[in-house]
Specification:
The chain is built from three helices and 19 strands. It is mainly beta and about 290 residues long.
Length: about 290
């Protein structure tokens, strides 16, 4: 649901932008600068895609990640019209409140469904999620891709501009790291008999090929995966634990991306380019 989707931005007050006054300017290293009104954007071909977004400040096991059905216009189609010039490496997008982010041009032009979104889960964008228009780019953390209330886009070289978070110590590029999270049961909970363990995993734009779980640092066991519409969404996973000895057990989970590469085990903090490590919980098993 839109009202439970995570929200991270620098706006002290949510900007209130009228669709009637909204305009988007696209300039910089392009042959044909473009200016669009909201109605002109809506008149263009629209697509709908399920895409998972994640904040770079999301810790291992955290909830600063969400999946939604986004509707909008492909950015690459607009950039094709604008005509990219040699040296156009960075897409600098600016919010109505002045916030900026820098997106690698290849993340717009490599075939992924990077869009100027106007709707979320079948409804107009909520104000807190960027109404009337925001950027959605699969596979990148929000700080380098997900500009809300976007009003200006400039094509630049990397050395020509540092977006908002870069001088504050965050990496210029922010690909989403492969991650698995345990959602049920809650850590420290008591269980008798079979324990159903489940959660979500994501490797946005690469897809999740496998999720594994282990108990007390023992052997890894493959989990069941639900179907997903695209590689740009998270996947639900589940594992049924039965016959565990009475007492407390530590459960860990890991995901593999579409190329079969496992997520890193070595823990890392959220700064400068995203947390990593295995999510783990403790469960208490009682024998009936």
């Amino acid at each position: 649901p839109n009202d439970s989707f995570y929200r991270i931005d620098t706006a002290l007050v949510v900007p209130q932008v009228s669709k009637d006054s909204w305009k988007l300017s696209i300039a910089g290293l392009v042959d044909n600068p473009i200016e669009l009104t909201f109605d002109e954007l809506l008149a263009r071909p629209q697509i709908e895609r399920y895409i998972t977004l994640s904040c770079v400040s999301n810790p291992v096991g955290g909830d600063l990640v969400g999946n939604a059905l986004w509707q909008g216009v492909l950015l690459r189609d607009i950039f094709d019209e604008a005509g990219l010039q040699p040296g156009a490496e960075q897409v600098v997008s600016r919010s109505v409140d002045g916030w900026t982010c820098g997106t690698p041009i290849e993340a717009i032009m490599d075939g992924r469904d990077s869009i100027l979104a106007v709707a979320m889960n079948g409804e107009p964008l909520p104000a807190q999620h960027g109404y009337p228009v925001r950027m959605v780019v699969p596979g990148l953390y929000g700080y380098v891709s997900a500009t809300k209330w976007v009003t200006d886009i400039r094509l630049t070289r990397w050395e020509d501009f540092d977006a908002y978070w870069v001088p504050r110590g965050w990496s210029k590029r922010g690909p989403v790291k492969t991650m698995a999270r345990i959602d049920t049961p809650r850590s420290g909970s008591d269980h008798t008999g079979e324990v159903v363990i489940g959660g979500v995993a994501w490797a946005v734009h690469r897809g999740v090929s496998k999720v594994e779980l282990r108990i007390d640092e023992g052997e890894w066991h493959e989990c069941e995966l639900a179907g997903v519409p695209t590689a740009d969404t998270w996947v639900q996973w589940a594992y049924r634990l039965d016959g565990a000895a009475e007492g407390r057990h530590v459960v860990e989970v890991r995901a593999f991306n579409g190329d079969g590469e496992p997520q890193p085990e070595e823990p890392a903090p959220v700064a400068p380019n995203g947390a990593q490590g295995y999510h783990r919980i403790a469960v208490d098993v009682k024998v009936a």
